[in-house]
Amino acid sequence: MEVFPSQDFMPKELENADSSQDNINQDPKGALIAELSKKGYLLLKENKIAEANEAFNAILELEDNNNYALVGLGDAQRKQNHFREAINYYSQCLVHHVSNNYALFGLADCYKALNQYPKAIEIWEQYLIHDNKNITVLTRVADAYRKIRNFKQSKQVYLKVLDMEENNAYALIGLGHLHYDFKEYKDALYYWTKMLELNQENADIRILTSIGNCHRKLKTFAEGIPYFERALEIQPDNFYALFGLADCYRGINQQFRSVEYWNKILEKDPSNKVILTRAGDAYRNTGDYEKASEYYNKALDIEFDMYAVLGLALISKSLGKYEEAISSLSRLIQSDQRNYRFYIDLADCYMKMNKKNLAIETLESFQRLGFRNQAINDMLENIVSNHY
Questions:
Q1: Per-residue pLDDT tens for 362-377?
Q2: For the whole model, what pTM was predicted?
Q3: For FRET with 11, which of 97, 116, 227, 379 sits at 20 to 30 Å CA-CA?
């Protein structure tokens, strides 16, 4: 949902170039250059890159460092995603034509494509000196500030765009992304919902899933479900919509519905380890330990997965097979000492076996690592005070 204006533009002065006989007689070389330039840009628009290059190179034979030719050659390279080659042409143009807006625009776009956002911003700001009302460039600047996580500058430029054009789609979408990236999910929801309201009849699937994801993050799972469902009406096998629905049903503890959507993803991608463990969790939470074990083991057949091992350990614990659970949880702690969940489940196994001292030792071993965790502290306090 980024801002991508057309690359196929023609300088306005060429569109209005005078090709009358009088003009040709007065300046035959200039008229030929104008004709070749116009031809080159039209060929670019038709995606005839080689022919366009011929026209632009013919201009350079008539006039070294001609700005139309250099920008045209830059555009031809950029159109093919040859960004470094394009940079050379735009830079050469700017050496001889310092304020050429087309070269500045193309050069900034190339740096953006190469993820060199600070350079892109610097050049776009040079462009804005000459044209500070250009909404396309302003939204690109705001996008670039967002990419380098400069919240304040990005928001300021997006809001400037909205002052100029109240419902500008790119600014609304960008503000949604900006707030989402900084975990300000309610604000992201505001901008994306406004965008959806403006396009109710032609809703963008990415906006729908983005709104749904805000509800997932806010844990308002039930409110997210309709947006993911609308997304599936547009594209029945959309991964993000299926994932979002499965997670929302998990969030409202309707595991049987969650499984339905995890399995739809697995129909298309049966070796997705993450989804296999999520489906395993859903089956475990419905009490179908046999099916859950099947999914966890499928995940482990692909490669080691700590959540699959944890799931199997929790099944063992639920079935009263505490020694098996303890063995698995102890191995998990060795692989990841920071995960407090492993210590809590291990301590719980020891308590179920009436091994209070080992439960206390397990929780204290986590504390000795220097990590602070309220769940660990609460469980330890309850065990020591015989309230567990």
A1: 999 999 999 889 999 9
A2: 0.83
A3: 116
